[in-house]
Design brief:
The complex is a heterodimer of chains A (241) and B (267). Chain A is built from ten helices and no strands. With 241 residues, chain A is an all-alpha fold. Chain B is built from 13 helices and no strands. The chains are: A mainly alpha (241), B mainly alpha (267).
């Protein structure tokens, strides 16, 4: 099993590049915040923007001069990149993993779970350097916001696993439609959340903003379990050619 | 000569497409300059709210009204596109032999591998120079049309030439990366990531002022604000560019000489 996971983990190494880029992004975000603390104000720049732009970039309701709000706002961009990565990996898992099935004779259920485990490990490799860099940068530059950073990474981890499972339950064009409709729904919810704050935790984009995100996380975990089970069921009946 | 010709003809697509994209961006950007100039006070007030490090990273110079400072801002993004293009083209040199079965063509020529590699590089560099000439002419004409006060033609040439130098460095970086990623089909992902990493290094360099990072990062070799201020390049970075290009060329040439051209597709 260890050999199988090791083989899967190092077959493609694109995620290592992703880890480097995200760690650098995190450092830049926090360093940029520190630069603005030197007598400048991000809020005053945002206040100059027209209302339409503010709504478009989903910035309403954030006090960017506070580190917690600033990080919550900026981490949305990083999160979306990882969600897309997770969705793409979910699609890949049901496309190419028949290779392992042919090489080593294991059941499809096990193979699905190994793929899930491999993805979780990859995700941790992608996220942990970023978390470390973000924590260290916060320690040096902002001196607070450690919990915000930690919570943000937990959200990203759980929602990415949700997207991975979601991608495995259907195939081909339906996946893309699913992804697009979920994306549109989330953006609509994010816009609504700008007006009605407590709806925000339903939207994957705005989840970082709310204190009660644990409920949402729990919700996504509960949804993820049946989706994973459906994914396993579908994977067992897939016709690999 | 026939290899150069072949390489020149078969590599034309990415250069033509990227030149069209660059032209569209530069025309669109300069067409917005009158709007920017008429709202200069608003932009001045906005830019004054940014820290100097962020401004320099975005390529915004302090002389806001001058068309060259506006061009510097556009140039920051054009440099990213050009670096991406050069990297991608450099990376494709190794993988394209297999993908398009060019090895069938090269392998039958009674010629050393080193020479084949040199000709392939020349074929691509010729495209870089042609696209540079086109870009320079276009930007020069646009600056002449939209300028509000006198500008040195030499400065424009120096700024645009810095783009060519940047592309050449990234082209050779692309060569070396491509030599390790011969079997990869999604080279654009790697090219994009490498450009982002270098751009991040640029930010770290401009905010933390770590001298060594300037030598690592090609984006910092020829910064437009420095060219405008000093009216010339920094000679140490010209030397660094030449040294990097020379060593990367020698290294890649060695790899090309020893690799299995054509691989499975040749059999």
């Amino acid at each position: 099993m260890i050999h199988l996971i090791k083989n899967m983990l190092f077959r493609k190494k694109t995620y290592l590049f992703l880890a480097i880029v995200l760690a650098l992004f995190n450092f830049i975000l926090i360093r940029n915040y520190a630069l603005f603390q030197d007598g400048y104000s991000l809020n005053s720049i945002v206040s100059e923007l027209p209302e339409g732009i503010k709504l478009l970039i989903l910035i309403r309701g954030y006090n960017l001069d506070s580190f917690n709000d600033y990080y919550r706002y900026c981490v949305k961009g990083i999160a979306i990149i990882i969600y897309i990565y997770a969705f793409a990996k979910g699609i890949d898992a049901t496309k190419s993993s028949n290779y392992e099935l042919k090489m080593i004779r294991i059941s499809r259920t096990k193979n699905y779970l190994y793929n899930l485990l491999e993805f979780t490990l990859k995700l941790l490799i992608v996220l942990l350097p970023s978390l470390l860099v973000a924590m260290l940068s916060a320690l040096v530059y902002s001196k607070n916001g450690y919990l915000t950073i930690l919570y943000s990474f937990i959200i990203i981890l759980i929602i990415s696993l949700f997207f991975y499972s979601l991608a495995t339950i259907s195939n081909g064009r339906i996946r893309i439609i699913l992804w697009i409709s979920y994306g549109i729904l989330s953006i609509i919810l994010a816009y609504v959340a700008c007006r009605l704050k407590y709806l925000g935790f339903i939207s994957i984009i705005e989840m970082f903003q709310y204190k009660y995100f644990m409920f949402a996380i729990l919700g996504y975990l509960i949804i993820s379990i049946p989706i994973t089970l459906i994914g396993i069921f579908k994977y067992r009946n897939l016709d690999f050619k | 000569m026939i290899i150069i010709q072949n390489e020149f003809v078969r590599s034309r697509r990415p250069y033509i497409i990227s030149s069209i994209v660059l032209s569209a961006i530069i025309i669109l950007s300069f067409s917005l300059y009158p709007l920017y100039y008429s709202n200069l006070d608003y932009f001045k007030a906005l830019f004054d709210k940014f820290p100097p490090t962020t401004l320099s990273f975005l390529g915004i110079a302090y002389d806001y009204g001058n068309i060259l400072s506006y061009y510097t801002f556009i140039f920051t993004f054009l440099a990213i596109i050009c670096a991406f293009r050069a990297l991608l083209v450099g990376m494709r040199i190794f993988s394209i032999d297999n993908l398009e079965q060019r090895a069938r063509f090269y392998y039958v020529k009674p010629i050393e591998r080193k020479r084949v590699f040199l000709y392939k590089v020349i074929g691509n560099l010729a495209w870089l120079v042609i696209s540079f000439v086109w870009y320079h002419l276009l930007s020069f004409i646009l600056i002449l049309i939209f300028k509000r006060n006198s500008i040195s033609n030499l400065t424009i040439l120096q700024i645009n030439t810095s783009l060519l130098l940047l592309e050449i460095v990234f082209f050779f970086i692309g060569l070396i990366v491509g030599s390790f990623l011969k079997k990869e089909h999604r080279l654009w992902v790697f090219a994009l990531v490498i450009v982002i990493i270098f751009k991040c290094i640029s930010f770290i360099d401009s905010s933390l002022k770590i001298v060594i990072l300037r030598y690592i990062n090609p984006f910092s070799y020829f910064t437009v604000s420095e060219i405008i201020e000093a009216g010339k390049y920094q000679y140490r970075f010209l030397i660094v560019t030449v040294v990097i290009v020379f060593f990367l060329y020698q290294f890649c040439s060695g790899i090309y000489e020893n690799e299995e051209i054509g691989g499975d597709s040749f059999d």
